[in-house]
Amino acid sequence: MRDDKWNEIKAMVKTKFKAVEEGRYDLEYIPNAYVEFISFDSPQGKMKLERTTQPVVLDKKTIYSKLGGSASKIEYSYSPDEVSHRFKAYKWSDGLNEWEEVKAPPI
Fold it and tell me: Using one digit for the tens of pLDDT, what is the confidence trace for 19-64?
């Protein structure tokens, strides 16, 4: 999802619904990655939209040892100029007291 489309969605949510919280936080385990979100009250209940931006993974290398009981490690190589975006929608579940991802029905 492009930046302009994400900004259009946020503006539409702010005009149609009461925005409860909006913000951005960095993902510590991926360099130059962050999550933007907006939560709002809708007729279906409390909803949250989330957009994750992160660099494209170029290479994945597994490092392991032949010693018994030693842990393996995965190293990722990220693109310096290409990014990918993921968009997710969540609905608040009062029974579970947490956010549940809203998935589109299969076609």
Answer: 889 999 999 989 899 999 999 999 989 999 999 999 999 999 988 8
Q: Which residues contact 56 (CB under 8 A, 6 or more apart)?
A: 78, 79, 82, 83, 84
Closest CA to 20 of 46, 53, 44: 46
State the total domains in the chain. 1
Q: pTM for the whole thing?
A: 0.80
Domain assignment present for residue 107? The answer is no
Rounded alpha-carbon distances, angstroms, from residue 4 to 8, 50, 63: 6, 15, 40
